[in-house]
């Protein structure tokens, strides 16, 4: 007897969870450390949190902060769906954030309650209701309460804030559940028993993993910390089929050799998100994981859940792919008109579902969200087949004299150097050009500027080559895995204190950093470092 497929309808997150828990109560949705969460328990805890919040005076539309650490994924997902089942709006946050950042997000969102995990004691909160782990776990079993409607707001997720104050992005239930269906259910990652990630709570990537746990055939395996050896060992021990990382993790996995030391033959999907995956890194992953499909995903907190998806192909190594799940892409000129194939312009993405918006910022909303389209803040172009290629973040393009330099292109060329593990490129003030490219490098040995420029001579034009470099132990990143370039620019400020420079680069007390000037680049000689060796 065949199952009749009903047309898709807008769903709420609580309804999606309740339907799956009813059909598969024993399915392990989340596995972290020694703990597991099956769907039946997830639904029961959700109902308890929802009823408890209602009894405590939380009403439909109230904002509730969720502050959890990397070890708290099981507690977090239950609190998240409990808040939504109560008809309230979740504000996910991570204990990795600074106390001032958490205070800002709570105040800006208008949160009246806070649910938190075991590591949140140091965070102050001006809220009417505050529940810690014991309060949440002690809530009694309860019947479902009247839930939200598909058009009601479900969450306020704050952007990474790499170029300014984080913005609160509001998503309705219909946005979060877009593409999901109940009859028959849609189960992604059907080739896997488990999918593995190490994304922080409070990020767009982390929220994507939460919804994978809710809807996918595979269960979530999450680790509180990322280390290449530990990560590869988990793949081997659990025979993981799907793996999700940010590019920095992929680079560490390759550079460490961990993929070679462990049996990773179970991996059939290796996905990278949050930033463009350098082509050399993608090729290295394809060689290290011959049985896996390497996929690059592209979206933003504002555009989600719409995204592009690109299976790595040597014919298009730098492509980010086509829009999927009913979305669309376009590249526009300054007048808002579509650019022809191959012509660079602003990247826009359209969602087939309910669009998102900024919280209490009509001006920014009107600039970024237009008639279902989302401005991505990136510069790129579409090829003749509609594949997207990024040139740069709009804010990162270096206007050097009469030329524009793509930091993504320079970083990709630097990653081809066998002794450069990671690279970040940015513009520095130049008295002649206005801005000149500079690079922060994580390397296996000390590299001189002249050596780097010789390597790049056949790969980049002269104006694209870094005029200054600095060596660091690691690149400073925010919780979403994106490089905070402002902290790297500070390394070239001759007026800064050495201690501040060390913090900005996250170098160790015994590491060395070297910087070279544009004048020395012209002569092929190295200048003295503008701050003392550490």
Automatic annotation (TrEMBL):
Q: Which PROSITE patterns match?
A: AMP_BINDING
Q: Pinpoint the AMP-binding enzyme C-terminal domain residues.
A: 410-482
Record's Gene3D superfamilies? 3.30.300.30, N-terminal domain of ligase-like
> SUPFAM superfamilies from the xrefs?
Acetyl-CoA synthetase-like (SSF56801)
* Cited Pfam families: AMP-binding (PF00501), AMP-binding_C (PF13193)
Keywords of the record, alphabetical order, are: Ligase
Q: Where is this region: Disordered?
A: 496-534
Q: Where are stretches of biased composition, namely Low complexity?
A: 497-534
Q: Which InterPro entries match?
A: AMP-bd_C (IPR025110), AMP-bd_C_sf (IPR045851), AMP-binding_CS (IPR020845), AMP-dep_synth/lig_dom (IPR000873), ANL_N_sf (IPR042099), ATP-dep_AMP-bd_enzyme (IPR050237)
Q: Does the keyword Ligase apply?
A: yes
Q: Which domain of life is it from?
A: Bacteria
**Mind telling me what this protein is named?**
Acyl-CoA synthetase (AMP-forming)/AMP-acid ligase II
Q: Which organism is it from?
A: Actinacidiphila cocklensis
Native organism taxonomy: Bacteria, Bacillati, Actinomycetota, Actinomycetes, Kitasatosporales
């Amino acid at each position: 007897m065949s199952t009749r497929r009903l047309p898709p309808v807008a769903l709420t997150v609580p309804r999606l969870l309740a339907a799956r828990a009813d059909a598969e109560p024993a399915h392990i949705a989340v596995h972290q450390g020694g703990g597991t969460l099956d769907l039946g328990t997830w639904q029961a805890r959700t109902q308890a949190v929802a009823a408890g919040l209602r009894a405590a005076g939380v009403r439909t539309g109230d904002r509730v902060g969720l502050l959890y650490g990397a070890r708290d994924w099981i507690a977090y997902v239950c609190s998240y769906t409990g808040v939504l089942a109560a008809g309230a709006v979740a504000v996910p946050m991570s204990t990795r954030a600074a106390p001032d950042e958490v205070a800002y997000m709570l105040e800006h969102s208008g949160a009246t309650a806070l649910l938190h995990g075991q590591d949140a004691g140091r965070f102050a909160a001006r809220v009417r209701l505050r529940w810690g782990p014991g309060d949440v776990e002690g809530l009694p079993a309860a019947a479902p309460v009247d839930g939200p409607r598909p058009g009601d707001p479900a969450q306020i997720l704050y952007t990474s804030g790499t170029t300014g104050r984080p913005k609160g992005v509001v998503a309705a239930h219909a946005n979060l559940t877009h593409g999901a269906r109940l009859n028959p259910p849609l189960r992604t990652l059907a080739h896997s028993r488990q999918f593995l990630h190490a994304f922080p709570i409070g990020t767009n990537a982390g929220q994507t993993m939460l919804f994978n746990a809710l809807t996918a055939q595979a269960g979530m395996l999450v680790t509180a910390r990322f280390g290449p050896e530990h990560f590869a060992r988990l793949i081997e021990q659990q025979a993981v089929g799907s793996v999700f990382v940010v590019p920095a993790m992929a680079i560490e996995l390759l550079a460490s050799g961990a993929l070679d030391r462990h049996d990773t033959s179970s991996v059939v999907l290796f996905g990278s998100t949050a930033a463009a995956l350098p082509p050399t890194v993608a090729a290295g992953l394809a060689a290290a994981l011959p049985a896996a499909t390497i996929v690059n995903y592209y979206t933003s907190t504002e555009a989600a859940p719409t995204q592009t998806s690109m299976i790595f192909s040597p014919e298009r190594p730098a492509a980010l792919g086509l829009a999927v799940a009913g979305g669309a892409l376009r590249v526009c000129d300054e007048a808002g008109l579509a650019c022809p194939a191959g012509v660079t312009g602003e990247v826009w993405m359209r969602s087939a579902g309910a669009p998102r918006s900024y919280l209490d910022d009509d001006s920014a909303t009107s600039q970024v969200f237009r008639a279902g389209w989302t401005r991505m803040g990136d510069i790129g172009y579409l090829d003749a087949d509609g594949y997207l290629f990024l040139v740069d973040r709009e804010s990162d393009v270096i206007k050097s004299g009469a030329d524009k330099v793509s930091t993504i292109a320079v970083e990709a060329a630097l990653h081809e150097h066998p002794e450069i593990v990671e690279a970040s490129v940015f513009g520095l003030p130049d008295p002649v050009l206005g801005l000149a490219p500079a690079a922060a490098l994580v390397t296996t040995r000390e590299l001189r500027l002249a050596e780097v420029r010789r390597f790049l001579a056949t790969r980049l034009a002269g104006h694209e080559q870094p005029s200054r470099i600095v060596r660091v132990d690691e690149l400073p990143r925010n919780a979403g895995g994106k490089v905070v370039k402002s902290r790297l620019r500070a390394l070239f400020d001759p007026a800064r204190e050495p201690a501040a420079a060390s913090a900005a680069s996250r170098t160790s007390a015994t590491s060395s950093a070297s910087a070279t000037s544009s004048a020395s680049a012209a002569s092929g000689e190295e200048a003295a470092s503008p701050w003392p060796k550490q």
